[in-house]
Amino acid sequence: MTHPPSAAIVGVGSTEFSKASGRSELRLALEACTLALADAGLDPSDVDGLVTMTMDDNDEPAVAHYLGLDALTFFARTAGGGGGGPGTLALASMAIATGRARTVICYRAMNERSQGRFGQPSRYAGDRAATAAAVTMSWAAPFGMVTPAAFFAPSFRRYMHEYGATSEDFGRQAVVQRAYANKNPQAFFHDRPLTLDDHQSSRMIADPLRLFDCCQESDGGVALVLTAPDHAKDLRQPPVAVLGAAMGVGPRQYGVAPLYRDDLAVAAETRVMGDQLWAQSGLGPGDMDLAILYDHFSPAVLMQLEALGFCGLGEAPGLVRDGGTEIDGVIPTNTNGGQLSEGYIHGFNGLAEAVRQLRGTAVNQVTGAAHAVVTGGSHAPTSGVVLGRTA
Amino acid sequence: MTKAPTAGRPRPAANPDTRFFWDAAFERRLAVQRCSACRALRHPPGPACPECHSLDWEVSDVSGRGTLYSYTVLHHPPAPGFDGPAVIAVVDLEEGVRMVSNVVGADPATLTIGEALEVCFEEYVGWTVPQFRRPAAREAVR
Fold first, then answer.
1. H helices of chain A, where?
2. Is B110 helix (H, G, I), strand (E, B) or coil?
3. CB pair distance less than 8 Å for B74 and A129
4. CA neighbor of A349 nearest in space, from A285, A295, A306, A390
5. Which residues are in the ChsH2 rubredoxin-like zinc ribbon domain (chain B) (predicted)?
6. Least confident of A93-107, A215-229, A251-265, A323-337
């Protein structure tokens, strides 16, 4: 059943993306929230809700305190690591639609390169207390499975086995995204082109993942302001409607990665989530003008194109080879350069890019963009949104 | 051969749902849970049967024979406690359960999805970890 838009995005704020911000994570969060409110033309006193991801280090009360909010009526977090980014918009939309809050800021800020690096082995020691998390990691860490690349690589290897995809197929999407980044002054890799040969000669990280298949480790913060559609239309920016907002876990998810399900060659959690997005919005893949697909690793982009129905299983390598994810392709994908080449703010920089596209202000603007789909990390508990231009 | 604990090969944490696995490995047995109600095998171990929801379970030794469902070789950053790149395997056991482990003694460049593997054990002081290797020659001929 199609739901009416429950909320709209009315403000976006972002810090720069860097390898060493030189500032506290809480400051990055406050900078992003303040910029987002200014973009919306709203005051902190208008805000009564805050939502972030479970891995964010900035407590909602701390953000509220330094924003100078009088009170919070709604605060919550989304699970699933990088899968949870768009899910923050799902929670905010539900809070707004049900009257729990009127205006909500979703934020994510981190010093993920200069402080807690996700790409380094998980801090884990089995001789500490047998917490549920430690027991879960005991089926991975003793075997060397200690980084996100190691957790997800067996799924990508199986995908290659099932459908004949190659490392070059993964590299082609990385090259497409780098070309977008080369036109994006905010991107890390703004001035560094990437060729397929560069990709193929980059060092192996976790076979089959090469260096240029992997997202950046980044410092930065991004925030989005959401409010009710009737309030949104009176504000400074053209509102971007949340037409669908969903979460998804597939069968036999255990721990970080779904290694125990029958078929690892399909992004099942993305399919569970995407089916809801299409049902809620009354739209389908053919209605999307662009896609922001979570690119912790380049093969995940291909597998999400398939799970969302942009092509059939095993067909994404051909779609990318034919230029389908480029600016004039059937589904321009990760037009900011993505997390491979713009920066990695746990998916939040992709949400900001979707808003820019639907306002018509992106650096790699898709002509007439009216609808966009944005996903959280695949191969983990995930989430996604369908966003729409309203003017 | 018993190795001293390496500089950082992570030791498993165990709780009442999972301790049997590591106890069995210490005795060089590979064991999984079997639901006492519907007899389904399961891994990783947990408190309940996903098939029938029973909380009752018992320990079932398995053959240790399986096939390589998928794998990765972790080059960078190095896995703590491994001398070189960790060859991490997703193994389908012939009894129908899946297990994450390592393949040892094989050139990772020659690994083939679907190839036969058998369990072996790496012993450390106080704990033992199940690993997989290509079957011994006599097994391959059989």
1. 25-40, 60-67, 85-97, 132-137, 148-163, 167-181, 196-201, 229-232, 268-281, 298-307, 316-321, 338-341, 348-359
2. helix
3. no
4. A295
5. 22-58
6. A251-265
Task: Report how far Cα B35 is from the mean position of its chain's Cα atoms.
Answer: 19
CB-nearest partner of B88 from A134, A137, A145:
A145
Q: How many CA atoms lie within 13 A of A110 on its CB side?
A: 24
Beta bridge partners of A208: none
A194 touches chain B (CB under 8 A): no
Tell me the pLDDT tens digit for each residue of A88-100: 999 999 999 999 9
Q: Which of B9, B82, B100 sits opposite A259 (nearest CB)?
A: B100
Question: Choosing among B72, B110, B122, B129, which should be mutated to test the A contact, i.e. which has the most A CBs within 10 A?
Answer: B72
What are the residue numbers of the active site of A?
A: 294, 344
Which residues in chain B are contacts of A143 at CB distance < 8 A?
86, 88, 100-102, 129
What average pLDDT does the structure give for chain A?
95
Q: What is the DSSP letter of A4?
A: P
With contact defined as beta carbons under 8 Å apart, do A225 and A10 qualify? yes
N-term to C-term CA, chain B = 28
What does A66-97 look like in DSSP terms, one character per residue?
HHT-S--SEEEEE-SGGGGHHHHHHHHHHHHH
Question: What tokens were used for A307?
Answer: 């799970």
The tokens of A369 are what? 């963009």
- On the question of a cis peptide bond just before residue B77, with omega within 30 degrees of 0, the verdict is yes
ipTM of the complex: 0.94
Q: What are the chain A neighbours of B77 within 8 Å (beta carbons)?
A: 119-121, 147
The CA–CA distances, whole Å, from B86 to A78, A204, B19, B73 equal 32, 13, 24, 6
Is residue B138 scored above 50 in pLDDT? Answer: no
